[in-house]
Specification:
This protein is an alpha+beta fold. The protein has one domain: YaeB-like fold, CATH 3.30.2310. It is built from four helices and five strands; from the N terminus they run E-H-H-H-E-E-E-E-H. It has helices spanning 19-25, 29-45, 47-53, 101-109, and strands at residues 7-10, 56-58, 68-72, 75-82, 85-93. Strands 1-5-4-3-2 form a five-stranded mixed β-sheet.
């Protein structure tokens, strides 16, 4: 079942910079293509289907309320929901089993 009008948006800092886009563009071309293709695919599937399949994870917890994690291979992109969109705030390559606290803190600092 597809969500109506679900889309991804990219958080911008005060200098019109976009950390997630900057990160993705700094990757190898094939990795960049994989991430962008998956984001387009996830938009087509919709939020509910992605949550049900684990492609997007709700990280709800005492400190993480409202934070979501988009999973694409070993890449993680954090974001928050705003109406029918997910605003992507921070991206990184996950290298171990546990997400580093610094990565979470960066994402949280960019939430409204």
């Amino acid at each position: 079942m597809k969500d109506s009008k679900f889309s991804f948006e990219f958080w911008e800092n005060g200098n019109n910079g976009c950390p997630v886009i900057d990160y993705i563009e700094g990757l190898k071309k094939e990795e960049e293509d994989i991430i962008l293709d998956k984001l387009i695919l996830y938009e087509k599937f919709g939020l509910k289907a992605c949550l049900n399949s684990g492609k997007i994870k709700d990280l709800a917890g005492k400190e993480l309320e409202g934070l979501f994690e988009v999973v694409i291979k070993d890449f993680r992109i954090f974001g928050y929901l705003e109406e029918n969109s997910m605003v992507l705030t921070h991206a990184f390559r996950k290298k171990g089993n546990k997400t580093p606290k610094a990565e979470i803190n960066t994402a949280l600092s960019r939430m409204p």
